[in-house]
Amino acid sequence: MIELGHLAAFLALAASLAQGVLGLTGARALAGRAALVAFAVMVLSFLTLVVAFARSDFSVALVANNSHTLKPMLYKIAGAWGNHEGSMALWCLVTMGFGAAGALWMRTGRETFEARALGVQGWLATGALGYLLFASSPYLRLDPAPLQGAGLNPILQDPALAFHPPMLYLGYVGYSFVFALAAAGLMEARIDRVWAKEARRWSLAAFIPLTLGIALGSYWAYYELGWGGWWFWDPVENASLMPWLLGAALLHSVAVTEKRGSFAAWTALLAVLAFLFSIMGAFLVRSGVLTSVHAFAVDPRRGLLLLGGLIAYGGFALGLFALRAPKLEGGKPWTILSREGALVVNNVVLVVAALTVLLGTLFPLIAEAAGRTISVGEPYFRLTFVPMLAALLAILPVVQAWSWGKADLSTLWKWAAGGVGLVVIFLLLGVGLWDIPLGAAFGLALAFWLIFGALWELRRRAVTLARVFRLPLRVWGMTLAHIGLGVFILGAVVETTQRYEATLALPAGGSGTVAGWHVTLHDVRAIEGPNWYADKADLTARKGSARAEMAPTKRYYPAARMPTTETAIHKTGTGDLYVALGDRRDVDGETRWVFRVYFNPLIDLVYLGVLLMGLGALFSVLPRRRKP
Amino acid sequence: MRELRCVACENEPISQSSAAIAEDMRARVRVMVGEGATDAEVRDWFESRYGEFVLFRPKGKDLTGLFLWSAPFGFLVIGGLIAYGLTRRRRAGAEPVAPEDA
Fold it and tell me: Which positions are tagged coiled coil (chain A) (predicted)?
């Protein structure tokens, strides 16, 4: 069975190679057919892997190392991509999926260009599949086959995490096709409005799953790791944030190219960089050069190969860029104080923010080479990354109304007065009345400023209320995404500055109070699941007339010899009461259990904001409504 | 406590770690704060004992540290200058055009 998959993967390799060669010679129809064949056989190949996992076929080495008969079916299947080899197979599958989608749905009317894009995509698929088959093959047999598998890393046994990698990969690898479009456009030195229209759709197609994938990963970290927070500036998180920032910059820049023909070279460069940063993310995570809590399958040799691929693709694309950028045509003229000028600022800040994340992530390595061991964490990003983006977002509502070419500045003073007024109100309320930190007051002002600005822009464009619903979907998409930013900031500011946390050590029958919640421990019982056993605490939390039964659990997976935290979260209208069970302690002959209790106010807004951004991107990619 | 790294874990601040050493480090912070130590004094004490590795907020005292802290703003200035330089070429004959959609 798995041999069939192995064979199919070789067929897919041959088809991708054919796609690469045919595409670059300009044969659009043939390259498209090769892309469809490659995708079809790769689907078959991936299915044999999934089936091997579903049937717990331990004669396959990968299944034996990463699965277990007692696992629930969902996690047996998710186990197929919950490891290095399987996730690389998924990477290949998605690369070919985008190739096939491109073959079917590219609509530029330029045959040679489309053929070349498919060709480049074919070479990207060939590289990924070559790496899979020759450096991390998931198809190998084990003889003799063991009777039982080693189990999936238990912290990955979770519904959010079963779907997080496919989502994230759709995003990362989605940028491969954007890369291919940029390379093909550069080959003919034609990055114009037609090109931008096509590239924008694919950039959005990658941005949406990337956004949702990051949100899923963050939500998983929130309730599974038991640390009470939603973003830890961990290298793996940073690796996904960098392509996201570049992707966001690209969306704005490609829109300028589409509407005005300007920024052609810059847009092409961003399109290339978004994918290079995606591969770099894979390299950082898989090579083990950075320590991280959720890196799995670490192997220096593989890291070296990924680095080689990164350099090869990067060298090719950037070389092409250097040759062709001077030949690209500029668009319509514009001054600095214009919509274009504002979007330049957007792009500079987003790219510098991505570089800052890169620097903070890699700096411990650089310092180590220089003989110093340091850690770069949340305080660094709070003091560099956050103010940079805050400044960018502060001007967003103002410049959003500006025209292309040259802005009308006569209403600028009203905007300035409004902004300053809002800040003063929140400073008075925040510092004077609510007693919150100065930064938090600015943050709240910014959140409301963004939400207000997005709605105001909608009003300005619609002129009358009746016309709001007849605005193009793109405008709705932009509005939703910008409201999402405001909602996200509101949640993030309140959660990070007003979070309340405490550690309680309770005996059975004991109680403590956290953030007004009176928590009583009834008892702690031992329970058993399909492939784990656990200590389950039975708690009652009370505040006024509100009452919640909570059961935080600590699981132990004998197959993997690892404990996991299953937090108990009680949602209230204003935030989450969050309890994680810690260790057992014996103090003076009495057994006490350690609980970490958090109150995370408005944390749902963090995820709601990100979802709104994803939804906004979705609205922007939907086809235009026909004019009545 | 979120600014101190647990010495036994990978990338976890002591406020989140469940390791025994993190509990000891938390206790130490509480004692020091109870004795009236400032945040800076607590950080210095931990640095002298465990090395700079425990600080999540790296110091900017020497050349490497200064580079780390100033680079983001440096990038911003450089990026701004490049962008400004490029835009100067495009000014002639700009006409305002209202955006019809996003």
Answer: none
